[in-house]
Amino acid sequence: MEKKNAVDRIYDKFEEACPEHNEFPKKLSVEADRIVYHYTDWKGLNGILKGRMIWATHTDFLNDISENQIATQRVRDFLSEWLFSRANEKTDARRFLQDYIGNICAQVNSNHSIYAASFSSKGDSLAQWRGYGAMGQGFSLGFDTNVLNKLTERKASEKEALFFSRLCYDESKQKEQTKNQVEPALDVLFRNYPGGRDHPDGLNAQQALNLWLLSSTAQNNALMKHPAFEEEEECRLWLIDNTLSEESQRPLSFRPGARGPIPYLEIPLWEEGELAPLR
Fold it and tell me: What is the pLDDT of residues 11-63, one digit of tens each?
């Protein structure tokens, strides 16, 4: 068995203290025996019917430019409030968090890329037609949630994590989830490594916390959306690219867009001879 380094061991402590990290996607799992709808144009329809694939688009290139910012803002706000409540503590770990708050957005976006294929529980949504259905000239395709849930079991590599989840629009639940993921990790950091960099494992602890916050925030960015979009009732088939290995069977592709090339991954929906998920 490969021996873990100090950063990985400390990261494991954060994970043990924060069970909510892995439970959040499960809480937002999509119910079985339902039909959800994917809005697309002629090209998307052709890719689904002929290629038996759906495109998971990099979320930086979706119509809503705030897609990858909600969870980042929630973490920034929580850290600011947490530090304010401990204003008298003059520790190196505290200074690390102060510096981190200003850099978290850039770090999340540079270290993690989220790819998502969007669905809605509404088969005839004006917002979805405007955003994804070629202004009413496209298609609303019904998909069986049982089949989409089973897709998450088909991994292109051992490291890959593919999810099918509803989105969380509720601001209070978003803040609660952020607190449940971040506060226990901070308690571990300050309780076990109070001297910050002066502690023998101080630098390793701060690096582990950085990785923990980046991972948690990236995952939550895939699952949280602004309350103003709640009427879309969106769910997503999604993955984070740091789970993709060099041997991944999901190579990155590009298609033209209004702001330049749009990166996406192809996710096979069904194999020849299998029942198609379209309903």
Answer: 899 889 988 777 888 889 999 999 999 999 888 899 899 999 999 998 888 77
Predicted TM-score (pTM) of this structure: 0.86
Helices (H), the chain: 6-17, 20-27, 42-51, 70-84, 92-111, 126-132, 145-151, 171-192, 202-223
CA distance 200 to 216: 26
How many C-alpha atoms does 234 have within 13 Å on its Cβ side? 26
Cα 256 to chain centroid distance, Å, stands at: 24
Single out the residue of 131, 150, 166, 145 nearest to residue 32, CA to CA.
145
Per-residue model confidence as pLDDT tens digits over 202-236: 778 878 888 888 888 888 988 999 998 899 999 99
